[in-house]
Specification:
A four-stranded mixed sheet has the order 1-4-2-3, with helices on one face. Strands 5-6 form a two-stranded antiparallel ribbon. The longest helix is centred in the last third of the chain and has 18 residues. By secondary structure, the protein is an alpha/beta fold. It has a domain of 128 residues: 3-Layer(aba) Sandwich (Aminopeptidase). The protein is globular, with a radius of gyration of 18 Å. The C terminus is likely disordered. It is built from seven helices and six strands. α4 crosses α6.
């Protein structure tokens, strides 16, 4: 929660001082945007720590016009990196009936340059994935129907649980689902594989988890 004072006043976008915090990631002020400044410094500290693997950044927002849950991602010149970041939203779509992959988009609009997703997507390396998870203020539709189902507090919490389930699927830790060939992020240069030996660096052909996958592999994933 990066906007506690604004939310306390009933704002859903602006801080206590009237700033849209998700437009000031490029150069947050410790005085005007203290929560952003603190979190940005923490993320940079974690990223520079060789003992820490910072693989995901997801900020969560409510959307005032669109329906369902959906994600925004970044566009990269590296086609493989661009295709890899589509994996998590596709898995989430399998777990959450109110999540819409068709509404998910990847962009680099100039007006979004100050968002956390855009700034950190440019700062972090190819082993990290940055998203914005948007969820409707109002309602969602299911499976091609047009009937709107109003969001409730429980429905929002269920979506949160489904995001957590998707992490289990992504890292192939969910014992309740069939093991499928989901391409996993490679270790950062110089990082050590886990002590269990179950995850090995890229280049080890015996390891599915860290196998280098082409864009075609990712496009053809079905779960």
């Amino acid at each position: 929660m990066l906007n506690p004072d604004g939310v306390y006043l009933g704002n859903y976008r602006c801080s206590l001082m009237g700033f849209d915090l998700n437009r000031h990631w490029l150069d947050p002020s410790p005085w005007a945007h203290p929560t952003l400044h603190g979190v940005k410094q923490l993320i940079i500290q974690m990223y520079n720590d060789p003992k820490t693997s910072l693989e995901f950044y997801i900020d969560i927002h409510a959307h005032s016009t669109m329906m369902n849950g959906f994600m925004y991602g970044n566009i990269f010149e590296d086609e493989e990196r661009f295709q890899r970041q589509a994996v998590f939203p596709k898995l989430l779509c399998q777990n959450a009936e109110d999540f819409s992959y068709s509404s998910t988009s990847f962009n680099r609009d100039a007006v979004k340059a100050g968002t956390g997703r855009r700034f950190l997507g440019g700062l972090l390396d190819h082993t990290s994935y940055c998203y914005t998870l948007e969820v409707s203020f109002y309602s969602y539709t299911i499976g091609g129907t047009t009937a709107a189902v109003p969001y409730t507090e429980e429905a929002y919490m269920k979506l949160g649980r489904n995001v957590a389930r998707t992490f289990l699927d992504y890292y192939r830790l969910n014992p309740m689902v069939e093991k499928v060939a989901i391409p996993m992020p490679r270790l950062r240069p110089g990082a050590e594989p886990e002590a269990s030996g179950e995850m090995r660096p890229a280049g080890d052909t015996e390891s599915l988890a860290y196998r280098r996958c082409s864009a075609a592999d990712l496009i053809n994933i079905t779960v």
